[in-house]
Design goal:
4% of the residues lie in helices and 39% in strands. It has helices spanning 36-39, 96-99, and strands at 3-9, 12-17, 50-56, 62-67, 70-71, 74-77, 114-117, 122-127, 130-137, 151-157, 161-166, 168-172, 184-185, 190-195, 199-203, 208-213. The strands form 5 sheets. It has a 5-stranded mixed β-sheet with strand order 1-2-8-3-16, with no helix packed on it. Strands 5-4-7-13 form a 4-stranded antiparallel β-sheet, with no helix packed on it. It has a 3-stranded antiparallel β-sheet with strand order 6-11-15, with no helix packed on it.
Length: 223
Amino acid sequence: MGFGLAIAVGCGSTIVEDPGTTTGSGGTTASSGTGGLCEGFADEMGTAAVTVRFRNETGLPIYLPSLCSGVSYSITPTGGSDGTSYRYDGSCLQTCEDLQTDFPIACGPCAPTSYLVPAGSSLDVAWDGTGLRPGAQMPAACFAAPDSGGTCSQVVAAPSGTYRAEAMGFEACGAECTCNAEGVCNGQPSGLQAYADPVMFDFPAAGLVEVVFGVCAFGCAGG
């Protein structure tokens, strides 16, 4: 999953995520003609999309770290882990559905990237309401590659419930770091760490979730 265009909006910006290699069609089957045997391993669509807004109230710039496919942050069920990653890197992802028609691929490392949220500004990203569940036991007949088999990962729809969103940022992104007009920076975030206030939200009711780096996100003297 790559990153699409970051568009300036007022004193904030919006990051549009590119779905990349995962299809999410929910209906692709293996070319081997195994039909329903493999349909159960198709990627699922989320029931709703959520805008996650990172707001910077620290008075200092914040650089958010990245996955290869976008901003790195976490979404977890408040009831405890269910074995599914609700914020995952799709940049070189091959799900069970993908492997029904594609041979496995090898990927190199992605370039270090960070995302600038200036003081008093915000950055919006979209969560599509899905998670990545590893360890699916797909039958060998469903794999496109000969002699493949074993486990694979499946994109699943996030169930309704209460979730927690959390994020961490940094004060800098390295001496050689430069950022474009949309705040996408070609450097690894570094320096003092800032921690946003964790926020709970109900899914799918919440259309907007604000993750705020408050005035003491970098730490306050005497606090």
